[in-house]
Every structure is written in structure tokens, then in C-alpha cells.
Amino acid sequence: MIIRKKEHWFKMLFVWHGSVLPQLLPRLGLLFVLSLAVVYLHGYIFSFKVPLNSTPFALFGFVLALFLGFRNNASYERFSEGRKLWGALLNHARSLTRQAISLVNLKTGNPELIEFVQLLNSLAYALKHQLRGTDPQADLENHLTQKQLEVLADTQYKPIILISLLSEWVQKAKAEHKIDSIQQLQFEENLNKLTDVVGGCERIISTPIPYSYQVLLHRTVYIYCFLLPFGLVDSLLWLTPFIVVFIAYTFVAFEAIADEIEEPFGVEANDLALNSMCQKIETTLLEMIGIHAVSIQESGRQIID
Do 144 and 283 share a domain, yes or no? Predict the structure, then answer.
């Protein structure tokens, strides 16, 4: 995801990276060539004059813009929900770390406390990789012990297994009389919230916007754009290609943006910055337990300054 400071209005006109324009150029170029041909032929196909004018396109364009607006709203809601879920993941991880410090009364550098925090860090990385369909092994090796890696080795839903390991850590603290039943329930409440976060992310990734709806809108946008030159050629003449490309850019770009943010956990320029979010979670949890170095040993333990 690209995160920038607000650009000057003039510079925004020429922003290239992060816009959808690069992927649209071939389509817009084809439409420009088609418009030139329509202008050259004065709106005729062989000897048949296409009887179109700008009136129906103005009416239909308004309706199409409304549908594109609904489509973009639906996609942005998914994007926004994904961001809220990862924000909740950060908050719940901080709460659990604070509870491990205060309720269990563990001091900075305690191996048990570091193990707990590393499990939380691993959860964030494992969830990122599950949502993106990538291999989490390298990140997990940097945070977990060999025994924990063996537990996760053949599992498909690693974030849920990591939550189970966190729960086992809490149960162990209860068995050793470091916390009481009420404090254990407080831990479990936040662990349940972590499960809700994982489930919410899985719901977004496994339930796309209905395909038939996307196909209908996609076809309508392109049919509208390819018929548009015939409706404008009589009134605009050689300005037709430029006006058509400008209008088509607006409609096609809206559709492309909606497609991109519909799946907010990918690696496109406008998707959520999951790498930065994982690093933020790791940094803040380590700072809470007094660890500031980021070097990680093979045992999965952080080096303390």
C-alpha cells in the first residue's frame, strides 16, 4: 500500500505510481484508435450510419455512474472492514501483553513473557501469509521455538493454532497459580476477540462480491465506452477521441479501483500495508516488554539491548 503525504493539487495531476492508469493505457489506447476510425468514417459502418446521439449516453451515463458508485462503496466497505480488523488485532495484542506483564507479574526479559509476545507476533505474520496465500515459514522461524514450529508444521489455519498455544500459555500460568480464574477469563476474553479478528479476515477473503454482478457491470462499462464515439462524432468531430478517452478513463478507472480494493489483503499498490502493520505490532509489543533490538536468534528469542 502506498502511503503519501498530501500532494500539491498540480502534482496530483501527474501521479503515476499508485494510480490505475498504467494498467488502463492499453484499453484507453484501443478506444482512442476506435474513436479516430469512427471520426474518419463519420460514424458509418460500411454504408450504414449508426443513428446515435449524445442524449441517450447522457441519461445512461448517469445511471451507470450510480451503479459504479454502489460498486465502489461495496468494495471500500470491505477495505475499511479489513483495516478495522487489523487495527483490532493491534489493540487486542497490546491488551494481552499488558495483562501478561501486570496480571502474571512477569518482569522484563522473562523467557515466559518473551514467549507469549513472540506467539502474538507470530499470529500477525501467520495471518498475513494466510490471507495472501504465501509461505509463512521464514517469519515463523524468526519468532517461534522449534517445538512450536513442529506443532504448526502440518496445519492449514496457523493463526488459530497460535491462538490455541496462547491459551495453553494462560492455562499453564493458571496451573502454576500465577493467575486466578477471574484473571484467566480476562485473558480468554481477549483471545476470543483475536479469534473474531481472524474469522472476520477469513470471511472477507472467502466471500467476494458476486461474480455475476461484476460481469454485468464490466460488460456494461465497456459497451458504453465503445459505443460512445458513435454518439459524439456528429457534434464533436475531431475532439471525439479525446473526450471519449477522458470519459472512458473515469468509468474504467472506477471499475479497476473497485476490483483492486475488493480484496484488501493483497500486494497491489492500494491494498492494505500488512507488512508495515505486522512490523508495527511486533515493535510495539517488544517495546512494552523492554526489548528494542530486532535481531532474532535461531531459538526464536529477541536480543535485549
Answer: yes
